[in-house]
Structure formats: structure tokens, C-alpha cells
Specification:
about 425 residues, alpha/beta, Aspartate Aminotransferase, domain 2, Aspartate Aminotransferase, domain 1, 7-stranded mixed sheet, two-stranded parallel ribbon, 13 helices, binds pyridoxal-5'-phosphate
Length: about 425
């Protein structure tokens, strides 16, 4: 039955979303130029202009990931597409995988590793804390994993796991080190080579300030060699004289890094159709971030978080989690007693156009998570957020000292 336009007027009205300031843990507001880049005309995937853009993306993201890795490319899909591509290509069924679990996304790494047939062991630490390097080294020594997997910054707990010493321990015991840097790339240092990270994946919709749907990843030759040893090119596109590699075929076709290497490399062997508009957006996000300069971008994130945290504390609110390991781009704050957390979030959204995040699992109803990521990290936004939060808290019976939050934000920004 065709839709009747007179009774389905909403569906036949052009999109016109109300403006929102996205201060949850991602997605966040995209750089305007990233959205404009997406409106750039289509190109064929093997047009030399387009393959040129693919090569440029590889160059740009090497800088973003602070790596020399040749294999630095995009996986089509949100951040978990990059996670699945790495884990499914790196884990041969039966491999021991050690997952460092300190939040919701550690659980995700565990689950995906299990689906890949890994024999998964986990170590856990209380939410709101991270692992001491010695504890991880001991676990590596005990379990002798083929792969160690961790999240860098887990948005569910707002904690960032220091990685350099774990990277060294992985090399010492010849384990491959996989890191999910979805929530930190572009917002805090992610020193892929410096910290000896073998494979790292991310997303666009957090500190890179792009739309969700593209996952920048990087991996070194240790991973490339492993993946190549499992390379089985799909039947319809095998070059003449092709001989399959001896290793077990990677279980996913779409996320097969060996075939992605052939697609992104000079062979340009056909695989999927690269998401043209997402590649444009990813290129633009990296161009903007590098244009600003990584150090400057990181400092902007730190300042925005410092301003936000100062404002929250001046309002008498308590911050969540181990202070010295907080991410620079998302803040957990305890919901004051007696406040209806969901109602307040709704008022913030509807009355002020500001979105902040709720929480998962045991933290639901206990903390809100407020993101300061990418394009959002600007003084005006931090002031708006604190002023609006102050207003809705007051309406809901929580009286913060008048003006204290705003004064504290100004204080953090004064002279910067
Ligand atoms: C640390 C981390 N890893 C993975 C993901 C999953 O990302 P996506 O929803 O883009 O697949 C998220 C999303 O919030 C995240 O914060």
C-alpha cells in the first residue's frame, strides 16, 4: 500500500532536527567542514582521484596515530567494525587472549574475542580504576596469551589505562597487543609506536568529531605477517597463480584484514565498495585535527575538561573515579541525592538543547557522563553546559551556590 502523503505528513517533511549541543560520551557535534566534505561528489572507487584520497587518508592517520605503520586505513562501519576486523583477523580459534577488563567495553572485547574462537582469560579491576602495569605483566607471565586486548579510554567508567609499560610487557613475552582507542584518539595522546601497540582501532564520532560510520585503524608488521599467513583471497577475484596461505582462513569476509590490505595497497584488489562520503569525512577530520596540531588539540580537551570539572565541583557535585587516571574528554559526575536523573537529562535536552550521557550497568542512575570531545571543546560550550545544568538542578530541588559553577569555569579559562 503506498503511503498517503496527507496522513503521513511528518514522513514527507524534510529533515530539520532541532540544534543540539552533544555533550555525552559520543557521538558529538561534527566539525562543520567534515559534514560539508560529505556533500562532495561521488567518485568511482578505482578512480585515480579516489585512490589518491585513500592514500592521503593513510598518510594523515599515521600522524594521528603517531605511527610509521604502513597499514593505517579505514574500516567501513562504526568503531566496533574496526575492533571486529582486528580481533577476527588476529585471533586464530584456540588462541589464548588476555582481556584487561575495566568497564563495559572490556566486556565487549571479551565477547568479540570469544566469538572469534579465542580461549579468553580476563583480569578485572573495580570500575572507576585501571590496572597497575605489574598486575598485567604477572597475568601475561601466568597465561602466556597470544594476544592481549584492552580499551585505552573506557567511556563507561571515564578511565584511561596507561599503556606504555603493558606494551613493553607484551613484547617481553611475545604477545600481540591490541588496543581500542575509540574514545581517546584525537583527544589524548595515543602513541602507537612509542608505546609498542601492535594494533589500534578507533571511531570518528568522538574526539575526531566526525559522524559515526568509519573506523580508522593501524597495525604493524607483526600483525600484518600474522594476517598474511592466514590470507585466503575470495574465489571470484583471485589473481592467476594464486596459492592460499597455510594459516586458517579468517572467519569474516568483510573484516578480513588480509583482503583489506590488498584493497588499500598497490594491488587495489577489489573487496567491498569503500564508503565514499565517510572517507571524505574521515579525511577532513584528520586534516582539521592536524591543522590545529595534535598538542594543541590535546590541550584544548584538557582545558575543557578542567573547566567543566571545576564548574561541577564548585556547584557542590562530586566527580567519579580515580582522579589520576581520568580521561581528558569525558567526566563522570555523581547524581545528587533526591534528583530524578532521567527527568533532569530530559529537561536539559528539551529546554536547553544539551545532551549529556546516562550510564551503564551498576552506574546507571548513579553518575552522569559529560563529554568534552573534539569540536565541542570550546569555552562557550562549557559555560552553556554548566549554566544550564545549574538551572535544571535548581528546578529539581538541588540548589548549588549561586553563580559558583560559572565563576569556576571562567576561572579555569582565565588567562588561557
Ligand atoms: C571505548 C569504546 N569502544 C567501542 C565503542 C563502540 O563504538 P561504536 O558504537 O562506534 O561501534 C565505544 C562507543 O561508545 C567506546 O566508547
Amino acid at each position: 500500500m503506498p503511503l498517503d502523503k496527507s496522513t503521513h505528513t511528518e514522513i514527507f517533511t524534510a529533515l530539520d532536527p532541532a540544534p543540539r549541543l552533544l555533550m555525552g560520551p559520543g557521538p558529538v557535534n561534527a566539525y562543520p567542514s567534515a559534514l560539508q566534505a560529505m556533500a562532495t561528489p561521488m567518485l568511482g572507487q578505482f578512480d585515480p582521484q579516489f585512490t589518491g584520497y585513500m592514500n592521503e587518508v593513510m598518510v594523515l592517520y599515521r600522524q594521528i596515530f603517531q605511527t610509521q605503520n604502513r597499514w593505517t586505513l579505514l574500516v567501513n562501519g562504526t568503531a566496533r567494525a574496526g575492533i571486529e576486523a582486528c580481533l577476527t583477523s588476529m585471533i586464530t580459534p584456540g588462541d589464548v587472549v588476555l582481556v584487561l577488563n575495566f568497564g563495559r567495553f572490556g566486556h565487549l572485547l571479551k565477547e568479540i574475542s570469544e566469538r572469534c574462537g579465542g580461549r579468553v582469560v580476563t583480569i578485572e579491576t573495580e570500575w572507576g580504576t585501571v590496572f597497575e602495569a605489574d598486575a598485567v605483566r604477572d597475568a601475561i607471565k601466568r597465561h602466556r596469551p597470544r594476544i592481549v586486548a584492552t580499551v585505552h579510554g573506557d567511556t563507561s567508567t571515564t578511565m584511561a589505562q596507561p599503556l606504555a609499560e603493558i606494551g613493553a610487557a607484551c613484547r617481553e613475552f611475545d604477545a600481540l597487543f591490541y588496543v581500542d582507542a575509540t574514545a581517546t584518539l584525537g583527544g589524548m595522546p595515543v602513541e602507537v609506536d612509542g608505546w609498542q601497540l601492535d594494533a589500534v582501532t578507533s571511531g570518528l564520532q568522538k574526539c575526531m568529531s566526525g559522524p559515526p560510520g568509519s573506523s580508522p585503524i593501524t597495525f604493524n608488521d607483526r600483525v600484518a605477517d600474522l594476517v598474511t599467513s592466514r590470507k585466503h583471497i575470495e574465489e571470484g577475484i583471485r589473481p592467476s597463480g594464486y596459492v592460499a596461505a597455510p594459516g586458517q582462513r579468517i572467519q569474516s569476509n568483510y573484516f578480513d584484514l588480509a583482503m583489506l590490505m590488498d584493497y588499500w595497497g598497490p594491488d587495489r584488489l577489489n573487496h567491498h565498495t569503500e564508503s565514499t562520503s565517510m572517507l571524505y569525512a574521515a579525511r577532513e577530520c584528520a586534516r582539521v585535527v592536524l591543522g590545529e596540531g595534535l598538542d594543541h588539540t590535546f590541550a584544548r580537551h584538557q582545558l575543557a575538561s578542567a573547566g567543566l570539572r571545576a564548574g561541577l565541583q564548585a556547584m557542590g557535585l562530586k566527580l567519579y573515579g580515580d582522579e589520576k587516571n581520568r580521561m581528558d574528554n569525558v567526566t563522570g559526575v555523581y547524581i545528587p541525592d533526591g534528583v530524578d536523573a532521567d527527568r533532569l537529562r530530559t529537561e536539559l535536552l528539551v529546554d536547553f538543547g544539551i545532551e549529556i550521557g546516562t550510564s551503564f550497568g551498576a552506574l546507571h542512575g548513579v553518575i552522569w557522563r559529560i563529554g568534552t570531545m573534539g569540536y565541542v571543546c570550546q569555552k562557550t560550550n562549557i559555560l552553556r553546559c554548566i549554566a544550564s545544568l545549574d538551572a535544571v538542578l535548581r528546578r529539581n530541588g538541588y540548589g548549588a551556590p549561586a553563580g559558583a559553577g560559572i565563576d569556576a569555569v571562567y576561572g579555569a579559562y582565565d588567562g588561557k
